[in-house]
Amino acid sequence: ITEAFIASEEFSDLQLLLKDQIPKKETQKLPWYRNVFRSYNIQKNENPNDEWPVPRFSSSSARSPLIQWCYLSSRNVRRWLRSPLPLLLILGNSVMYGIVLALLFSETDNSQYGATEHVSLFFFIAVVVSALALSYTPQIFEERPAFYRETSSKSYHPVVYLISMVSV
């Protein structure tokens, strides 16, 4: 390894330190050192010469938002199928709240009293929707590390990630 550093022009400080340890004859026998440093520079995304230009991408993500949404939606569907208990609880809550709402507000009419019932129906539905959203909170906390990891690495756009979670 030290021979490779000495043969390189980049590591001149190291050449000064190790110049007496390896004779010049040995370093001249090994022409493959240039290729080693070329591949090293390509891995670091540096431009070693004009043959290897630095790649430029047209967008910040590798796939279009529609493809990202398809991948994330299929993953969310598989997650729900693998652990169906939270899904069944959410569906059970929805059915129960639907029956309660139907029984409470089945006698509404167009009178003054019925108009106040319509307003109370709106607020009651808001409470029901917020209760259903709270039952989804544990799933969000389970998904949070993956969300941060995949959005920070720009694998998925954060808006597409959230839309796929909500749509499934």
From TrEMBL:
Its main location: membrane. Signal peptide: none annotated. Residues 68-166 form the ABC-2 type transporter transmembrane domain. It is a multi-pass membrane protein. InterPro entries: ABC2_TM (IPR013525), ABCG_transporters (IPR050352). The chain crosses the membrane at residues 85-106, 118-136. It is found in: Membrane. This is ABC-2 type transporter transmembrane domain-containing protein.
